[in-house]
Amino acid sequence: MDSDRPSVAAAACADATIVIVGAGQAGGWAAQTLRKEGFAGRLVLIGDELHQPHERPPLSKAVLAGEAAPESTRLMKSDAFEALALDWRPGARVTRIDRAAKRLEMADGATLAYDKLILCTGGRARTLPIAGADAPGVHTLRTIDDALVLVPVLKPGNSVVVVGGGWIGLEVAATARKKGADVVVVEAQSRLCERTVPREISEHLLALHRSNGTRVMLGAGVTRFASDNQDRMVVTLADGSALTCDAIVIGVGLVPNDELARDAGLACDCGVIVDARCRTSDPDILAAGDVAVTPNPWAGRSVRLESWQNAQDQGIAAARSSLGLEVDYQPLPWFWSDQYGMNLQIYGIPMSSHRVVARGVPGSGSFVLFYLDGDVVKAALGPNAARDLRFARRLIEQRKPVDAQRLADAGVPMSKH
Ligand code: FAD
Description:
The protein is built from ten helices and 26 strands.
């Protein structure tokens, strides 16, 4: 659209107040988009962190490695942020939504009326319900502040036990190794990232971590954390053995911050349920990002996506939808992870019912696994294969039948499918 002229929808909302709760990536994109679409009304952005809207992926990578400043993760430069003319409320927490009165209650007792409300409350790091989980020396990683506490801990001579071999745990492990710390990853399942990737990728990750000097223990549960007499931490495992270390990082997933929505009676299912227009069960309340459970044709059901791409795109979609603009948000999921210089990308949702076609040799440095339903590619993933995966994305989106044999042949350029 012409950015100098408000859309008809935005102009119609000129006297309205739109409130965004959660000033993370989705909230930040929602705010930018509302102004870009010409919304000139009151725009309130409330976040319980003190930081401006920012991206989290560097927090387990460059920021944790001490190679990038936290400010480098901001979505916008300061002048662009100022130019949004927001009623910006850092360090403020919304405690209740009064839907009947269309009013928010804040932790400091203040109230705030809204015409449209966009929930971008994300999630928080899951912890473990075991003794010692809240002891000093036991960390999780979700926020800039979490990362800054960990930066000095990850250094040569220190040892770290990472509990959980999922994405955050593995990225912390890779960064800790890069900084010279000794690392043990303790994973309760029989393989790494079991929930999100097939066995071949789990094995690739396992080999990668072991070859970089990380000790990985699979099928190992933890039962308690404690500190010993020398200021070190002790992790007790289910088999009774123990690991001693300087710090523990728990990376066992995310709990969606959907309590506000649930308490207000909005439909929720481990996240706030929205439609393809990002609307909750209350048409004046929308949701986006890690907290939203969204219809997804690639999954064949509604899913909650925890990814950079979704936080941005759904933040944009929710903002547009709140102005009454046409929105049909049913994204092809895309996720990436960086570990020890390896870039892994996943498009779509691989399912056990799919036929798997490998291009390149699983176990080698670079390969792609395609997931086919009949002759149609539904998902694709692999390490160090960004270029092939860009073409794979197109195949998935076009739903075009492919020749599986040619797809497996690395001699046939991906552009020829
Ligand atoms: P959040 O960023 O969690 O923002 C929500 C905000 O709302 C938070 O600040 C929260 O405190 C605030 N809030 C919650 N409740 C309230 C309330 N009641 N009042 C006021 N404020 C409230 N994705 C990838 O695709 N690739 C990666 O490599 C990758 N790496 C990651 C590394 C790390 C360390 C983390 C944590 C995530 C990573 N992700 C990655 C995921 C991606 O960053 C998230 O999907 C994205 O940040 C979600 O954005 P969001 O705005 O929905 O939620």
